[in-house]
């Protein structure tokens, strides 16, 4: 089967977008894994499959680089918003996207995309994490390493760990350990955060199913929510990631808004 795709990136978090509005493509985990392979496939952090939706302008399925399916992707949805407008799948600068994490509403303005990410989920069992109540600065041992964890769901699970500004977090060592710990029944994304000041943080992300990535939109949002709840940041924060910056605001109506860029890279066709 020959498929047409568009390669896009949001702050270096790169994706293969496939238009499946005619439901002609069947993509399984092995196919997604092959496409994301940077040696034998196109190469990406994930695949975004665009489909019809009965409850939104369009639907989005998200496959991680390891073939697993994710609930939500903040950088990915910004890419989808720009793609959908360019291809005429939607009209105007606002749209709704159905994901496994709920309906998300991006808005486009001067090449930047602001996304209403909805309300964060803070109850441990609902994130899910095998701990009761809100998990804020909770001490946990991961093998020989002890960390204070902050757990948030932005449609997908996140574990946020804060470090002093001058420290270099052990992303490659601790990231996969936390991701796969039995504490997280659906695994978890892991954010390693250094607070520069109450309006500015630096974040590195170990992404579930993909390893360390240059950026993670839901991870940036989760980091700000955790910063507010732990008393480390204000509600409006500039998040510096290795791939670039995202503006995140946890508004008074409890919705989290994320603003950032996305860009087209190239188009192509490939046998699958």
Entry summary:
The chain has 272 residues and is of the alpha+beta class.
What keywords describe this structure?
Diaminopimelate Epimerase, Chain A, domain 1, 4 helices, 2 domains, 18-stranded mixed beta sheet, alpha+beta, 18 strands, 272 residues
CATH class of the largest domain: Alpha Beta
CATH topology of the largest domain: Diaminopimelate Epimerase, Chain A, domain 1
* Proportion of residues in helical segments: 10-25%
Order of helices and strands: EEHEEEHEEEEEEHEEEHEEEE
Number of helices: 4
Could you say how many structural domains there are in total?
A: 2
DSSP E strands, number: 18
Query: Which class of secondary structure composition applies to the elements?
Result: alpha+beta
Low-confidence stretches at least 5 residues in length (pLDDT < 50)?
none
Mean pLDDT: 96
Question: What is the CATH superfamily classification of the largest domain?
Answer: Diaminopimelate Epimerase, Chain A, domain 1
Shape: globular
Largest sheet, if any?
18 strands, mixed
- Rg over CA atoms: 18 Å
Strand content: 35-45%
Q: How does this structure look, described?
A:
With 272 residues, the chain is an alpha+beta fold. It folds into two domains: 2-118 and 261-271, Roll (Diaminopimelate Epimerase, Chain A, domain 1), CATH 3.10.310; 124-253, Diaminopimelate Epimerase, Chain A, domain 1. The chain contains four helices and 18 strands. The protein has helices spanning 29-36, 74-86, 171-179, 217-229; strands spanning 2-10, 13-19, 46-51, 58-64, 69-70, 97-99, 102-109, 112-116, 138-142, 145-153, 157-163, 189-197, 200-207, 211-213, 236-241, 244-250, 256-261, 263-271. It has an 18-stranded mixed β-sheet that branches. The longest helix has 13 residues, at 74-86. The model has no long low-confidence stretch (mean pLDDT 96).
């Amino acid at each position: 089967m020959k498929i047409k795709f568009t390669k896009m990136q949001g702050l270096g978090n790169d994706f293969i977008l496939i238009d499946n509005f005619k439901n002609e493509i069947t993509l399984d985990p092995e196919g997604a894994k092959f496409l994301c392979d940077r040696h034998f496939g196109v190469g990406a952090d994930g695949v975004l499959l665009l489909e019809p939706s009965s409850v939104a302008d369009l639907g989005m399925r998200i496959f991680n680089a390891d073939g697993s399916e994710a609930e939500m992707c903040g950088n990915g949805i910004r890419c989808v918003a720009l793609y959908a407008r360019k291809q005429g799948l939607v009209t105007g600068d606002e749209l709704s996207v159905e994901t496994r994490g709920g309906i998300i509403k991006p808005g486009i303005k001067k090449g930047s995309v602001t996304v209403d990410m909805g309300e964060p989920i803070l109850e441990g069992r609902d994130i899910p994490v095998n701990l009761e109540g809100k998990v804020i600065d909770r001490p946990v041992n991961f093998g020989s390493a002890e960390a204070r964890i902050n757990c948030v769901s932005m449609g997908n699970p996140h574990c946020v760990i804060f470090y002093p500004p001058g420290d270099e977090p052990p992303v490659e060592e601790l990231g996969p350990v936390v991701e796969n710990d039995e504490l997280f029944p659906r695994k978890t994304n892991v954010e390693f955060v250094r607070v520069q000041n109450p309006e500015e943080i630096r974040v590195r992300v170990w992404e579930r199913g993909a390893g360390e990535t240059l950026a993670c939109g839901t991870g940036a949002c989760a980091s700000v929510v955790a910063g507010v709840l732990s008393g480390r940041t204000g509600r409006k924060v500039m998040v510096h990631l290795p791939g670039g910056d995202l503006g995140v605001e946890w508004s008074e109506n409890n919705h989290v808004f994320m603003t950032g860029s996305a860009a087209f890279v190239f188009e192509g066709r490939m046998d699958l």
